[in-house]
Amino acid sequence: MDWTRYRFRDLWTLPAPPARVYEALERAEDYPRWWRQVREVNRVDSATGVIRIRSFLPYDITFTAREVRRDAAAGVLEIAMTGDIDGWARWTVTAHGSGTLARYDQEVRVDKPLLRRFAVPGRPAFRLNHALMMRAGRRGLAAYLEAV
């Protein structure tokens, strides 16, 4: 097993229509407004940006995100990532009752030297760090959607 590879799936139920959720998720430069762990998003061009995140553990992860797919009709946003983490991430937004289900899938390899060094003993903490970040993101987006 390669201890530097991760696969995540998170499901967010949100009290807003799918079109509103999709619009919020496609504006990555606004993530720091509602997702405190997304510290910085700097656009490079219309399809690329540099993102810096930091959750509860004391390290930043910085990566370049390049848009691979933006399909509003299918509710899909997908990026390729290079930098401290390499891989891809995808949002899939669908109707769910009177609201929305936002599914987040991610497959990455950690390339940040510190995280590679602690790949085996740190894996449970890294996974918990991701889970806490995603929980905060769902809460932040729900509050943002209610306020807008």
Task: Provide a concise account of the structure shown.
The protein is of the alpha+beta class and 148 residues long. The protein has helices at residues 18-26, 31-34, 113-117, 119-147, and strands spanning 5-14, 38-45, 48-53, 61-71, 76-83, 85-96, 99-110. The chain is 32% helix and 45% strand.
The major β-sheet equals: 7 strands, antiparallel
Count of folded domains? 1
On the 0 to 100 scale, the average pLDDT is 97
The total of helices stands at: 4
Distance between the termini: 44 Å
The CATH topology comes to Alpha-D-Glucose-1,6-Bisphosphate, Chain A, domain 4
**Uncertain ranges:** none
CATH superfamily: START domain
Structural class: alpha+beta
Tell me, what's the shape? globular
- CATH architecture verdict: 2-Layer Sandwich
Strand portion, in percent?
A: over 45%
- Helix and strand sequence: EHHEEEEEEHH
Q: Widest sheet: strand order?
A: 1-7-6-5-4-3-2
Q: What portion of residues is helical?
A: 25-40%
Rg, Cα atoms, Å = 15 Å
CATH class: Alpha Beta
Total number of strands: 7
